[in-house]
Design a protein that fits this description.
The complex is a heterodimer. By secondary structure, chain A is of the alpha+beta class. In chain A, 31% of the residues lie in helices and 18% in strands. In chain A, helix 20 (612-630) packs across helix 21, helix 20 runs parallel beside helix 27 (837-847) and helix 26 (766-785) crosses helix 27. By secondary structure, chain B is α+β, with helices and mostly antiparallel strands. Chain B contains seven helices and five strands; from the N terminus they run E-E-H-E-E-H-E-H-H-H-H-H. Chain B has helices spanning 23-30, 64-67, 75-78, 85-92, 102-115, 121-128, 138-148; strands at residues 2-8, 11-17, 49-52, 55-58, 71-73. Chain B has a five-stranded mixed β-sheet with strand order 2-1-5-3-4, with helices on both faces. The chains are: A alpha+beta, B alpha+beta. Chains A and B meet through helix 8 and helix 26 of A and helix 1, helix 4, helix 5, helix 6 and helix 7 of B.
Chain lengths: 875, 154
């Protein structure tokens, strides 16, 4: 959905936090406060104006609002610790609070009025264009709570530091005034200010003085700590806290599935197996005969098509069984299922094996050129060429906690409890249901704002997300049922089978690569064709959406074009093109990158690392193939391919993106403040362009960690042993992976070791960065070895972890992870560890004398490629 | 519907449900013990692992009628305060990521170490491979158990 906020200058100052007179201690303890508010604040702490994430209690304790949902990335502790570090808060006196959806509150505007000669704080001095690009938001309201794209730390690191430093400075000034000394003689440490003559005071005694202080933006940015003064951040002097660990190991952490609202009923939904289907008829009697079943309710009236292609987050057609407990609902659903008749609709013939052929035909023909340099065809004609085609199937995210939501409708409002990566999307979805708004209306800002006001969304801990919980379809389901039973809290519980069969799948993709090699065995030209089933095909109505009028089709196309890097159906969106295609880092004289057609027939969304999954697999595998064709060492060849240390040609790459962004989405003249969606565009385009020196850095470090040179020499004389390497930039971070494998006589695969190195700028929470690296490698191995969603007759074939297997402990190799030392602005770590794993593995198998793997997963037997590994086994 | 006497964490509870209701749902929906998680419903993922008379069992496929014959221990009963050696080691090594599967992982690990206090890698692999973690915390789980078993290499 596209959201356009127009923010007046006043509103900007109010929400900015880092604006002029940034940290203003609020009006707490003033007579004007209502008694009720006073009591609330006595319990929960008094808000600090200008710092929307901090409240201070009268005893000086700090309540930090962790506005980014927690799904395993550790962001609750990490962001809070960044703030606490700068604030010099004693962690023992910090409590964390997970707030409701309130995206506008946590948006961060850039202080455009800051004088031109003021040095911007790290990292903004690294963004030369930030002053003239009219980038008013560091994080837009739309993206302030939306936890995807690995951007929480990137977006909020400096903001949290400024918030913390502002409070510390106010405390120091309050103490200095109290003691009648110069503030320069005072310093703060762990909730105390120390002054000359052995004086010291706890923050609690300084609250009243501090509230009168209004340190300026300039003063605060000058007060930021130097890196050697950090307590928790990076290589700080104390261990970074992990606030939730104890609750997690005691079973006390509350996930969405654990919410219990008095009077709550549980619903299970039998859904149409095919996208865009409709209910024809059903018989509620057998389900109602099950003990505990209270109601049987269709999601849409018979004949009305449910969600699917072009229907964004609209729930699928289905019938809900509502019962007093989960098991009764499940039993009722089983009784209901045989009575349902569906209109399966136009996608009932979708077959993923046949579709794969379509995708491969698509990459056999020229597509739309998305990046071009000189004459590829001429170079191909002049030299010998190498080509290869790669395939990656649909994949499901399968977080450990299946989707779940509780909704209560009363007095015209919707109250929701749910694990969501997208609180604002959830709030809009729930509010739209409460008010009966249509999808057409919900593209308009006025309706979105009304919908937000009609819903409260309590965000719980997430039992994993991986992109699945970015889509609020399951929240809309709960809201739709709750609306039919006002006053009764309704919990919609998905089974694992539901999760596997009704995901928003990662795209299926065919990738074709071709290169010509010159006399020096380096490529003279490179062609890449990428066909992928874009998630924009799910988000915006298109010709694969049934029953659309010409006007609806046109409106869908326009809406899509108006959204970042829109593109046209059935092509990729700008988001997908920018994830490993347009930013292809190899230094080759002639380049043409094309995007080819791919139709949508099931719901496509995104999974950890998204389009980087197939782009990284293809390009890195191809680099491995070229190294073999050239008779060169893989690692040296890869470094050569990447070429000189440089910022990727901004004129052809970044400028293209900007032009597309501006021309297709936001005609600048028409609006006052350009929207930076989720802070993504300014980060990618202005602040963090692809930097090949970082790719070099991770490759060199992982080569050292894995003892690449000596092992390659040693394995040359060993049968069935090999090393493979791959490197990929995604979500602004850079990761290189080395796989060490053995192959048996029948090509049984043993993965001995995986080495992975990341460059993510400053690693703020080193332990969580390492944890994300370990987990990202496991996630990457899961889909490389095992992951595959297939579709027959429009319905997903797989059911549960038995036929959609994921990596288990005994299959997990030794994993060695490391971080490139850096003090540059921090970048994402949730998704980047994943993409390079599969191609490193494929390259290692080839190096060990095994077949060249050009399709995933390795362990499938349903594909009849003769070059397939005959057996995949595990160490 | 029948009344079953369930001994959970040392306390007796009378639950009035169908005897084929899985223990998981009786724990979560009837007794309000939410530490035991639903992950798959078919004993594939181990998120619902509890102890029956000290042995690891998947509560999603254990009927209440069967569970009533044993002493049931859930994550809430492993310790009141997180002081079980597994829980302490899990915190020390920062094992959890999202944390959702960890009660089940810990119940499996605790049963393994109760049976094999000096578990070797083979025993760890075989006991712990019924518990899925999508965040990929396996390396740290293995490290934690090795340390508790005194078989750590580092």
């Amino acid at each position: 959905m596209s959201t356009r906020f127009k923010v007046s200058r006043r509103a900007f100052l109010r929400t900015a936090g880092v604006g002029t007179g940034a940290v203003v201690f609020g009006s707490y303890l003033t007579p004007s406060l209502q008694a009720q508010g006073l009591i609330h604040n006595l319990i929960n702490g008094f808000p600090v104006e200008g710092v929307p994430v901090v409240a201070l209690k009268v005893n000086g304790d700090v309540v930090i609002t962790t506005h980014r949902p927690e799904m395993g990335q550790g962001i609750r502790s990490s962001l809070a610790a960044v703030l606490a570090d700068e604030m010099e808060a004693d962690w023992k006196r910090v409590t964390l609070k997970q707030p409701d959806a309130e995206a506008a509150k946590y948006a961060v505007a850039f202080p455009a009025e800051v004088a031109a000669d003021v040095t911007l704080p790290f990292p903004y001095e690294k963004i030369p264009s930030i002053r003239d690009a009219k980038l008013q938001y560091l994080v837009s309201p739309e993206g302030s709570q939306f936890t995807d794209s690995s951007r929480s730390m990137t977006a909020y690191y400096t903001v949290m530091r400024l918030y913390g430093a502002g409070i510390r400075l106010a405390m120091i000034r309050a103490a200095a005034k109290k003691w009648g000394v110069d503030e320069k003689e005072c310093r703060a440490e762990k909730h105390r200010v120390y002054g000359p003559g052995g004086r010291s005071s706890d923050y609690r005694w300084l609250l009243l003085g501090a509230k009168k202080e209004t340190p300026s933006y300039e003063d605060i940015s000058n007060a930021l700590k130097k890196s050697e003064e950090f307590r928790y951040i990076g290589k700080g002097k104390e261990k970074m806290p992990f606030y939730d660990a104890l609750d997690m190991v005691r079973g006390k952490a509350e996930y969405g599935a654990d919410v219990d609202v008095p009077g709550m009923l549980t619903a299970m939904i039998e859904r149409c197996p095919v996208a865009n289907g409709a209910l024809l008829s059903y018989d509620p009697a057998p389900a109602l005969a099950v003990k505990g079943v209270r109601a049987v309710v269709p999601m849409f009236p018979p004949g009305v098509r449910g969600g699917g292609v072009g229907r964004a987050f609209m729930p699928l057609a289905g019938v809900a069984v509502i019962a007093t407990n989960t098991w009764s609902a499940w039993q009722g659903r089983r009784a209901l299922k045989p009575t349902i008749k569906w209109d399966l609709g136009p996608h009932a013939s979708y077959d993923s094996a046949a579709f794969r052929k379509e995708l491969e035909e698509s990459t056999s023909k020229p597509g739309r050129t998305v990046r071009k340099k000189d004459d590829v065809d001429g170079a191909f004609a002049a030299a010998g060429t190498v080509d290869a085609r790669y395939y990656v199937p649909h994949l499901a995210q399968t977080p450990m906690e299946p989707p779940v939501a509780v909704a209560l409708f009363q007095n015209g409002r919707m109250e929701v409890w749910t694990p969501t990566q997208n609180p604002d999307g959830a709030q809009q979805a729930a509010g739209a249901v409460a008010l009966g708004f249509t999808p057409d209306q919900m593209v308009l800002e006025t309706f979105q704002e009304k919908a937000r006001k009609a819903a409260t969304v309590h965000v719980t801990m997430l039992g994993g997300g991986f992109g699945r919980k970015s889509k609020p379809d399951y929240i809309a389901e709960a809201a739709m049922l709750a609306k039919q039973m006002p006053g009764v809290p309704i919990r919609v519980q998905w089974t694992r089978e539901d999760d596997v069969k009704f995901s928003y799948y990662n795209a299926a993709s065919s990738q074709y690569l071709k290169a010509s090699l010159g006399a020096d065995k380096r490529p003279t030209a490179l062609l890449q064709r990428s066909a992928l089933t874009s998630f924009f095909g799910t988000l915006f109505p298109n010709r694969s959406t049934p029953d659309l009028s010409a006007a609806e089709l046109a409106a869908g196309a326009k809406l899509r074009a108006d959204t970042y890097g829109g593109g046209e159906y059935p092509y990729a969106s700008g988001i997908e093109r920018a994830q490993g295609l347009e930013d292809m880092p190899y230094e080759v004289p002639n380049i043409r990158l094309e995007n080819c057609e791919a139709e949508n027939h099931i719901r496509v969304g995104w999974m950890r690392s998204v389009a980087n999954v197939y782009h990284a697999f293809a390009i890195n595998s191809f680099a491995g193939e070229l190294a073999i064709a050239a008779g060169r060492d893989q690692k040296d060849y890869l470094l050569d391919l990447i070429g000189t240390d440089r910022i990727l040609d901004e004129k052809t790459l970044v400028a293209q993106s900007v032009a597309r962004y501006r021309n297709n989405e936001l005609p600048l003249a028409a609006i006052e403040v350009p929207v930076v969606k989720g802070g993504k565009v300014n980060q990618v385009v202005a602040g963090y362009p692809p930097d090949t020196s970082r790719l070099h850095a991770v490759i060199n470090q992982v080569a050292e960690e894995s003892d690449w040179k000596n092992k390659v020499a040693k394995y040359k004389n060993m049968k069935g042993r090999g090393l493979g390497i791959a490197a990929h930039r995604s979500f602004l971070s850079y990761v290189a992976v080395v796989a060490d494998v053995s192959l048996g006589d029948e090509n049984e695969l043993t993965i001995n070791d995986i080495y992975a190195t990341i460059h993510c700028g400053l690693a703020v929470n080193r332990d969580r960065v390492l944890a994300q690296m370990e987990g990202g490698v496991v996630y990457g191995l899961s889909y490389a070895l095992l992951g595959q969603i297939t579709v027959k007759n429009g319905a997903v074939v797989q059911n549960n972890f038995d036929d959609y297997p994921v990596l288990r402990l005994y299959q997990t190799p030794r994993i060695h992870v490391s971080i490139v030392d850096s003090n540059d602005p921090p970048t994402g770590v949730g998704e980047p560890p994943t993409p390079a794993v599969a191609p490193a593995l494929a390259n290692a198998i080839a190096a060990a004398g095994g077949p060249r793997i050009r399709e995933l997963p390795l362990a499938t037997s349903s594909l009849d490629d003769a070059k397939k590994l005959e057996k995949v086994m595990f160490a | 519907m029948s009344v079953f006497q369930l001994n959970v964490n040392g306390k007796m509870h009378a639950v009035n449900v169908d005897g084929n209701m899985p223990l998981l749902w009786a724990l979560r929906d009837i007794l309000g013990l939410k530490g035991t998680k639903f992950g798959c419903g078919v004993a594939q993922c181990g998120a619902c692992t509890v102890h029956l008379d000290g042995r690891a069992a998947r509560s999603c496929i254990t009927d209440v009628g069967v569970a009533a014959l044993s002493k049931v221990t859930t994550i809430e009963g492993l310790s009141y305060d997180g002081s079980h050696p597994c829980q302490k080691m899990w915190v020390e090594l920062g094992v959890p990521q999202c944390g959702f599967c960890q009660p089940g992982q810990i119940m499996s690990a605790a049963a393994l170490l109760a049976e094999h206090p000096h578990a070797n890698d083979e025993q760890i692999d075989s006991y712990m491979s019924g518990n899925i973690c999508r965040c990929g915390t396996y390396p740290r789980i293995k490290d934690a158990i090795r340390r508790l078993a005194g078989s750590a290499t580092s």
